[in-house]
């Protein structure tokens, strides 16, 4: 992505120290970053720190550098504004159109995407005034992230924690890549997402697995939650990925455990996104002790039995009327071409065989799809529509997938 001009606003909360990581990450990505803190923010992090990280001067008032008219110019020239943390006070002042410092004045002049990352105590986040302010900002086109749940100031815990810097910068890059705002259009929709690879045990040490990192499924869960959905994420082997903010995470290991978790949560879900790489086979027997080389127990071969097809079983359950709440099922297919046909040939056959509404298709190979941060592919629909998914970050691909899910939800 070409370098962009990004304004990072910092409001006065204890989470202001995390803005330093956001600034560094955006700067290291090649963007030109200008930090505009409030006076209260400087009580937590000094101006010198922000200047050192951004390489740009730091000002808080509208009467500094008057000939440059900064309260107008900064906003006019920005490609994106990120406010992290966004306190309850800052959100209220933004809604009211206040312009009593450089940050709020800048927010009034921008016409680019604006991303707010709230951070405050749970009671403040859930107060009707804050709820109304967040709704107003979203209605005006701003993106207001759902905060994480966790440790707050002191011994308090709950929703209101600033999302991790990686998550904030991920959405900042997404807004720049999309070129438009991220709509908050899935409120009231329950989405069940599976992600990561399953591990089928052979003995207490060894297992049969696959190369899935879980990054694509996590990206879908992350984007869907920030578009207002109530998201449950069933996570297999995900290489230590951080839990997405605002998402309930259920951890599993094997394909059988994933099947049971989907069966448990599917009845309440409106949408299922089967992004997990579920093992097709598992060992017919599992040794209670480690299998030793050269011992009598060393196998000459490993007998495999087929695992249940969770996606196909869920489609059948919906068809049989067992899942009355579920209206959209999305499958994933990691494919390669062969003598019988190319990737799309096999994908179209799989869509027909599985009976899902949408099928996300990835061509896999060295450095493609698995264990990387970018992706591309196709989105096939049951009605015959086929859309190419441009190469980009897995978060960008997730946002395009969620666009299609939202369109189907809107048609229900």
Automatic annotation (TrEMBL):
Transmembrane segments: none annotated. CTP binds at residues 280, 290, 332, 350, 354. Residues 4-167 form the Flavoprotein domain. It catalyses: (R)-4'-phosphopantothenate + L-cysteine + CTP = N-[(R)-4-phosphopantothenoyl]-L-cysteine + CMP + diphosphate + H(+); N-[(R)-4-phosphopantothenoyl]-L-cysteine + H(+) = (R)-4'-phosphopantetheine + CO2. Pathway: Cofactor biosynthesis; coenzyme A biosynthesis; CoA from (R)-pantothenate: step 2/5; Cofactor biosynthesis; coenzyme A biosynthesis; CoA from (R)-pantothenate: step 3/5. Its EC number is 4.1.1.36, 6.3.2.5. Its cofactor is Mg(2+); FMN. It holds the Pfam family Flavoprotein. Residues 191-412 are annotated as: Phosphopantothenate--cysteine ligase. GO terms for molecular function: FMN binding; metal ion binding; phosphopantothenate--cysteine ligase activity; phosphopantothenoylcysteine decarboxylase activity. The keyword Transcription regulation does not apply. Binds 1 FMN per subunit. InterPro entries: CoaB-like_sf, CoaBC, DNA/pantothenate-metab_flavo_C, Flavin_trans-like, Flavoprotein. GO terms for cellular component: phosphopantothenoylcysteine decarboxylase complex. Residues 1-190 are annotated as: Phosphopantothenoylcysteine decarboxylase. It comes from the Bacteria. Keywords: Decarboxylase, Flavoprotein, FMN, Ligase, Lyase, Magnesium, Metal-binding, Multifunctional enzyme. Residues 186-407 form the DNA/pantothenate metabolism flavoprotein C-terminal domain. The keyword Magnesium applies. GO terms for biological process: coenzyme A biosynthetic process; pantothenate catabolic process. In the N-terminal section; belongs to the HFCD (homo-oligomeric flavin containing Cys decarboxylase) superfamily. In the C-terminal section; belongs to the PPC synthetase family. Catalyzes two sequential steps in the biosynthesis of coenzyme A. In the first step cysteine is conjugated to 4'-phosphopantothenate to form 4-phosphopantothenoylcysteine. In the second step the latter compound is decarboxylated to form 4'-phosphopantotheine. Catalyzes two steps in the biosynthesis of coenzyme A. In the first step cysteine is conjugated to 4'-phosphopantothenate to form 4-phosphopantothenoylcysteine, in the latter compound is decarboxylated to form 4'-phosphopantotheine. This is Coenzyme A biosynthesis bifunctional protein CoaBC. It comes from Mycolicibacterium chitae (Mycobacterium chitae). The gene is coaBC.
């Amino acid at each position: 992505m070409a370098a962009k001009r990004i304004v990072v606003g910092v409001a006065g909360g204890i989470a202001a120290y995390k803005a330093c990581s956001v600034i560094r990450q955006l700067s290291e990505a090649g963007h030109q970053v200008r930090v505009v803190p409030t006076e209260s923010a400087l009580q937590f992090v000094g101006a010198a720190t922000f200047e050192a990280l951004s390489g740009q001067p730091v000002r808080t008032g509208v009467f500094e550098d008057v000939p440059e008219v900064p309260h107008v110019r900064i906003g006019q020239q920005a490609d994106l504004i990120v406010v992290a943390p966004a306190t309850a006070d800052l959100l209220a002042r933004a809604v009211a159109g206040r312009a009593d410092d450089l940050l709020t004045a800048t927010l009034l002049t921008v016409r680019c995407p604006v991303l707010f990352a709230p951070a405050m105590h749970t009671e403040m986040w859930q107060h009707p005034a804050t709820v109304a302010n967040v709704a107003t900002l979203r209605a005006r086109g701003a993106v207001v992230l759902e905060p994480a749940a966790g440790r707050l100031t002191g011994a308090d815990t709950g929703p209101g924690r600033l999302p991790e810097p990686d998550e904030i910068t991920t959405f900042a890059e997404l807004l720049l890549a999309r070129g438009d705002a991220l709509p908050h259009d899935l409120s009231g929709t329950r989405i069940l997402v599976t992600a990561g690879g399953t591990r089928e045990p052979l003995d207490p040490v060894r297992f049969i697995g696959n190369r899935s990192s879980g990054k694509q499924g996590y990206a879908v869960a992350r984007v869907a939650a920030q578009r207002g959905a109530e998201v449950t994420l069933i996570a297999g082997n995900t290489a230590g990925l951080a839990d997405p903010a605002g998402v309930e995470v259920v951890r599993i290991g094997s394909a059988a455990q994933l099947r049971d978790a989907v069966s448990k949560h599917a009845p309440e879900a409106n949408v299922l996104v089967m992004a997990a790489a579920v093992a097709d086979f598992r060992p017919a027997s599992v040794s209670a002790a480690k299998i030793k080389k050269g011992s009598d127990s060393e196998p000459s071969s490993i007998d495999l039995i087929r695992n249940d097809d969770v996606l196909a079983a869920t489609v059948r359950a919906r068809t049989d009327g067992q899942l009355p709440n579920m209206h959209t099922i999305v499958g994933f297919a990691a494919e390669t071409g062969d003598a019988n046909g190319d990737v799309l040939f096999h994908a179209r056959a799989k869509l027909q065989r599985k009976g899902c509404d949408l099928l996300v298709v990835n061509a896999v190979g060295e450095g493609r799809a698995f264990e990387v941060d970018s992706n591309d592919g196709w989105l096939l629909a049951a009605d015959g529509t086929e859309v190419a998914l441009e190469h980009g970050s897995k978060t960008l691909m997730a946002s395009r997938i969620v666009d299609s899910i939202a369109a189907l939800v809107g048609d229900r």
